[in-house]
Amino acid sequence: MINSLLWTPLAFGLLGLFLPRRLAGWWATLGTAATLGIAIALLAGFDSGATGLQDTVDVTWISGLGVDYSLGIDGLNIFLAMLTAVLWLGATAFAAFREQERPHLFFLMMLLAETATMGAFLAQDLLLFVLFFDLMLVPFYFLFGAWGSDREDGPTAAAATLKMIVYTLVGSLLMLVAAIATAIIAADGGQISFSIAELASHPIGTGSQRWIFWFFAAAFLVKMPAFLLHGWMPDAYRAAPLPVLAVFSGVLAKVGAYGFLRIVLPLFPAATVQFQTVLLLIALASILYGSVMAFTQTNVRLVGGYSSVAQLGFITAGIFALRADGGDGAVLQMVNHGLVVAPLFIIVALLAERSGTEDLRKMGGMAMRAPMLAALFLIVTLATLAMPGSANFIGEFYIVNGLFQAKIVFAFVAISGVALSAYYALRLYQRTMHNRKPEGIASREIGLRDGFVLAPLVLCIIGLAFYPQLILHRTDRSVEASVAAATKEPTPPANLASTGRKADSGSSSRPAGGEER
Amino acid sequence: MTAAFHAPHIDYAGLSPVIALTAAVCVVLLTEIVKPLRRTSPVLTLVALATTAGLLIWQWNDPQDLVAGALRIDDLAISISLIAVFTAAFAVLLSIGEPAAEDTGSGEYHALLLGSVLGMTLLAQSQNLVTFFVAIETLSIPLYILCATNLRHERSLESGLKYLIVGSLGSATLLYGMAFLYGGSGSTDFAGIAAGVGREGLLSDPLILVGIGMAAVGLAFKASIAPFHQWTPDVYEGAPTPITGFMAVATKAAAFAVFVRFFDVALAPQAGEWQPALAVLAAVTIVIGNVGALGQNSLKRLLGYSGVAQAGYILGGLVVADRAGVDALVFYLAGYALMNLAAFAVVVARERETPFGDSIDAVRGLGRQRPLLAWPLTISMLALAGLPATVGFIGKLYLIEALVEGDYTWLAVFIAVGTMISLAYYLRVVAAMWMRPGGEPAPTPAIAGASPEADPTDAHAGRRWYLVAPALLAAAATVFFGVIPQPLVDFAQRAGASLF
User: Fold this and answer.
1) In this complex, which of B388, B409, B489 lies closest to A181 when CB atoms are compared?
2) Tell me, what DSSP letter sits at residue B64?
3) pTM of the model
4) Which of residues 409-438 of A touch B (CB under 8 A)?
5) Under 8 Å CB-to-CB from B46, ≥6 apart: which residues?
6) Does B483 reach chain A within 8 Å, measured CB to CB?
7) CA nearest A488: which of A282, A203, A260?
8) At what angle do helices B371-384 and B465-483 cross, to 10 degrees?
9) What does the alpha-carbon distance between residue B128 and residue B70 come to, in Å, rounded to a whole number?
10) Looking at the DSSP assignment, which residues form a beta bridge with residue A62?
11) Which residues of chain A lie closer than 8 angstroms to B485, CB-CB?
12) Secondary structure of A271-294 as H, E, C letters
């Protein structure tokens, strides 16, 4: 079952090469729909009461190197896999409705990307995770570079894409070294194993954790992207084809955040506690910087891009609150943000088709003859700004709640991010849909086919708003387990002896651990 | 009194690959004399290579000393020889229709190629300074000539001469070092030298230290390890492309085999003393190779510098001086052969097909024009860059694991950093093939005709089976061993097991 979830997209992609050109898109859509079907079946069979992994596959892959082909789902990744399946179906269908150059290759890359992303979520072997994490880049390199748009005043699509690849691979190659180092240090001369569960049960020494933590953190923060490591984002976002950008922004950024929850917290608990403040500072900087940039941008894509920086900052803050609440909120918010940002980019594509521009200053009045589009867009906008009643509100509430318990100062700053998001989201909506309509812009209602893409995504947003327990209920145990390693971690014995118990109990990790019990 | 004469025991089975190659050199060379047989030399060469491969596989897993310990045929020697034989077979296919082969005379060209393979097979087996030197010259001299076989091209002649001079310098250094080694240890056997080193100490006896240093430098020349790599890009660029491909892969493999035998086996007890020096050499090589490749517009020069960088990675496997390191080294060499051959096959095809020679312009827009060539080159570039689902990723993984285990994590970080730099040039080639649609270059550049190098010789080269099939085969194997690496891992582990 889990194997088919992983490989169905790629299988469809390869078979699609043998079909006539005009069928390629439909075939790919069928492939993503089948994947979604499998994902739903997995979710239906998911036992929310159980702890640990379900539907596992574990086969030796390279015996000499200790690498296993090991997959599994639990509360952390089941909804991210769902999100992947949903958004890919939407984006692929949206792309299939439009004429694509070299459709065979486009849809092959699209489906390869889905398999790679799904693999990163499902992998339970550290090295397999790194492999899929790197593999994701290959299809996106082609999709951005070959189907992206060159800018007259900026780098070509190929150059922008190269920048993105180099940035992200810098992180992930160091992560490869770090992953291998983790396993070798943990094995301590014995049989090497990359199994995440095994590595988590015997964390390595604190000294090694410190540098390995940063190698992993670099990879994940670049992917998100976080403040200071976002240099690739503006160029890449402007170059990317919009349906591809929808999944890229919707799902790939979450792989970074997921990596923290799956790998960094359980495997390097001591370093996590030690660097908690640094990561929280980066998260807050991302929230503030992303928000401020989002309401100064004139390019519609960049509004979406920088708002993602801010939202991912929120998610990081939730994770590094190191509280179950914060982690729950982070997982919920990952799904929420994916469900919001993907429709947003699809709407951007629709707006760009109607106005022939992506410049906010040249848009306006689009709501006039398109009430349906306006309504859908409004729902997405309100969800983006975390209107009370939306699932995003609940997600942010959980995150801030976790932060309050952990570091109250950070929580106050984070709350300002919520207010800022209202500003940029509403600004985006007003500038495009309201105001006076400039000459030469068509205000057309959303087409039936595009409606079929957008409406279900918006329905998902509404559905989650009514029933966020769907996610919270299932993720709770896994998040607790992931966070537990870091919170319950007693400060290392060596430290304990030298600084004494009193100083320790005052440290940030202790009090909440007591509260939980 | 009866005088009993005991003939030395000669193990013909163990020597059979060498004998087969020697016989093949003579036979192929003679075909040139008999007119009706002239066109058979490529076929005969392929048959000879297949026979040699068969004999090598026959000797698999049966390690023994030959010729009074001067040679040793074990799984390391066999696996490296197999890589050389396999590469040579590719070179033969790529040489079909190559002007260089026609100009020189097909028989001589192929006989020289076989001679070089013979040298490599010997080198991989040698464990004595004399056989070592004889083998390295048997390997090199045919290559000096082959580099210059493109008689009508000045570049090719220049390349041959340059290679001759630099190569001789390398050989001379090596020989001089050998003299010191003999002087210091009183033996020409690796085992005897090791015993001498053990007696005198590596760092305390200047004679031995100088000897080992010079021998290492001589080998570094052959394996194009920085800072002894300067000849590589020039020679690679000028030589006929099939020969470049052969040199890039097989010479490196053979040089590393003897490197392993000398350092990892004979000098293993002193590992702590020479490891830091070689590790620094590896780090320097990685940086110089990758930085050098950045600005290159000639694909052959780019692959030359990339080969320098890859030699640095491979040297990492040697540095750790344990079984995991040798496993990783052999695995990476095998993978490196596949990745590079796919690339060179495409370069050969485009060189004959377009007026751009080996410039990166020759592959611009290839994704549309010739997908069957574009895919192999794409896979090869992604694999050389170490992206997943290719043998390149597993190879890097293997090397890094060996390095971290051997306490050389800093060198593993160097490999990671080098790989990042390398993306910039590998992906430039991929971008040229697939991106900027419509940016295909004008069919004839203004200077066409001015340089004979640039004239297309075969307008349909991109559809010739003997170019497309090798490219596809190597690319398919690159992906296959990236997804199912176990067979290649087993192959590499046998090599390591035969030494430790």
Assistant:
1) B409
2) E
3) 0.91
4) none
5) B89, B92
6) no
7) A203
8) 40
9) 5
10) A67
11) 62
12) HHHHCHHHHHHHHHHHHHHHHHHH
